[in-house]
């Protein structure tokens, strides 16, 4: 399996959440481990690779408890985020996830540059800006939800989550393109 | 996005979390704040208190100043919601607080003869115990009907307006009106309407639509005369209507349920007492919750 395909599969696993009671099947940490193993199989001299490997390792360990503690109350209640430690921990891992995505974008851009695929590099750079911009804005605004009235936060939540989901899907589609490009270079 | 910009963005996220968590914690109450209650045994007894929004505990029992102990009605917790803000006892909520009400059995209160004033000891299900001034709580006695008054209608609105209306079955004179809690009446505007009282506004008897209108009308337009200005006796003929309209002043943050006593004599010379229930159902805006914390939070 080529590395891009494994990164794609890993991140898809992270995106899909299926809970059986407290236990999450298709646990996130398995997805992150897939990303980590894919990165280890790639050229270590790519820009951002060191950061990506480190972050993938950190989040693989960090995400293990997530599979067993269930979703934070903020998610099960639908809207209002609570301030308990589980929620904070959950939020923290999503930020580490963003850091991982940041480094992955760098790895991808450097890979496409080295392979001489300028179009793909440009496309990646464009999504990179949107992806990070949307996530940072969302993460800066989300803590305000504990201090402002529900009727304001609910529409914002829906809008924000919708935007983030679109970004995640766009990222996955992009990785699939990388997978195809990679297949064209190294026929299996 | 360069590494530096990204790190600054992460810092801003951290500051946003830190700042909001700090503000959230600065708004937390150390312990629930109880409303002042005025209860004389009429209507329902509910204990109102303001608590933190994520506080899942509820009252189990109350020790009154006369030594009696009363357990809360447990059935309202039969279907519990995981989120305290959607519990059955929540009357109002804001971003940081919940106004909760706990029900008690009035019959049991009468059996115990509860006579309370001032500080009570309140036990919560989490084991927490607090001492707080809850006002005046008396059990009272069940009244026997006099058969003279027929309830026509009663209604109340969230703007603090409520009324009760009766018709009388025979000719009688109302000689006085008295209240067990004159201090509550001070913060309450009351108007009494009867055909023989020179009155302003719409007369009673116009059907449901008039009642609804009466709840939203300007106070000066409400039928009747302020209680303090009435000349007794009030003469009433058979089938005459009498109506008491009440208007709670804004920001009177308290709970009450008691009876105003209307006394008089029938045409045949038989004395009677007719109770008029005066009660409110506190529901607070976020601003009123802040006001309550300011008034009763640091005692």
TrEMBL record, chain A:
Keywords: Membrane, Transmembrane, Transmembrane helix. The keyword Transmembrane helix applies. It comes from Halobacillus litoralis. This is Uncharacterized protein. The chain crosses the membrane at residues 20-39, 51-68, 88-109, 130-148, 154-175. It comes from the Bacteria.
Automatic annotation (TrEMBL), chain B:
It comes from Halobacillus litoralis. This is Uncharacterized protein.
């Amino acid at each position: 399996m080529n590395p891009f395909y494994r990164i794609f599969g890993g991140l898809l696993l992270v995106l899909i959440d299926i809970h059986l009671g407290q236990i999450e099947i298709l646990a996130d940490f398995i997805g992150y481990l897939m990303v980590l193993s894919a990165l280890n199989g790639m050229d270590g001299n790519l820009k951002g690779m060191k950061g990506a490997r480190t972050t993938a390792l950190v989040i693989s360990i960090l995400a293990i408890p997530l599979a067993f503690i269930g979703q934070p109350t903020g998610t099960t209640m639908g809207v209002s985020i609570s301030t308990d430690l589980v929620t904070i921990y959950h939020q923290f891992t999503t930020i580490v996830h963003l850091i991982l995505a940041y480094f992955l974008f760098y790895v991808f851009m450097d890979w496409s540059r080295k392979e001489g695929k300028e179009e793909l590099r440009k496309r990646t750079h464009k999504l990179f800006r949107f992806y990070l911009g949307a996530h940072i804005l969302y993460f800066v605004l989300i803590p305000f939800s504990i201090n402002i009235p529900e009727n304001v936060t609910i529409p914002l939540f829906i809008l924000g989550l919708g935007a983030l989901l679109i970004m995640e899907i766009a990222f996955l589609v992009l990785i699939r393109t990388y997978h195809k490009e990679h297949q064209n270079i190294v026929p299996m | 996005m360069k590494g530096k910009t990204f790190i600054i963005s992460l810092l801003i996220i951290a500051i946003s979390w830190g700042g909001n968590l700090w503000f959230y914690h600065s708004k937390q109450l150390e312990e629930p704040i109880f409303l002042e209650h005025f209860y004389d045994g009429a209507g329902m007894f509910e204990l109102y208190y303001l608590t933190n929004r994520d506080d899942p505990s509820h009252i189990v029992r109350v020790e009154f100043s006369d030594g009696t102990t009363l357990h809360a009605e447990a059935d309202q917790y039969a279907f519990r919601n995981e989120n305290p803000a959607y519990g059955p006892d929540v009357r109002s909520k804001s971003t940081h607080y919940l106004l909760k009400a706990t029900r008690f059995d009035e019959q049991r209160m009468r059996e115990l003869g509860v006579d309370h004033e001032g500080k009570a000891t309140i036990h919560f299900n989490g084991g927490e115990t607090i001492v707080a001034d809850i006002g005046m709580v008396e059990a009272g006695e069940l009244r026997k009907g006099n058969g003279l008054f027929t309830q026509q209608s009663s209604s109340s609105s969230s703007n603090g307006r409520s009324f009760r209306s009766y018709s009388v079955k025979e000719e009688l004179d109302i000689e006085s009106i008295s209240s067990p809690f004159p201090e509550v009446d001070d913060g309450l505007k009351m108007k009494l309407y009867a055909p023989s009282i020179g009155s302003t506004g719409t007369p009673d008897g116009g059907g449901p639509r008039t009642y609804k209108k009466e709840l939203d009308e300007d106070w000066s337009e409400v039928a009747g005369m302020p209680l303090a200005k009435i000349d007794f006796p009030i003469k009433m003929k058979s089938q005459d209507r009498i109506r008491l309209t009440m208007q709670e002043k804004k920001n009177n943050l308290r709970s009450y349920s008691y009876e105003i006593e209307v006394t008089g004599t029938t045409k045949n010379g038989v004395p009677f007492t007719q109770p008029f229930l005066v009660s409110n159902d506190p529901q607070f805006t976020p601003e009123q919750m802040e006001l309550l914390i300011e008034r009763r939070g640091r005692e």
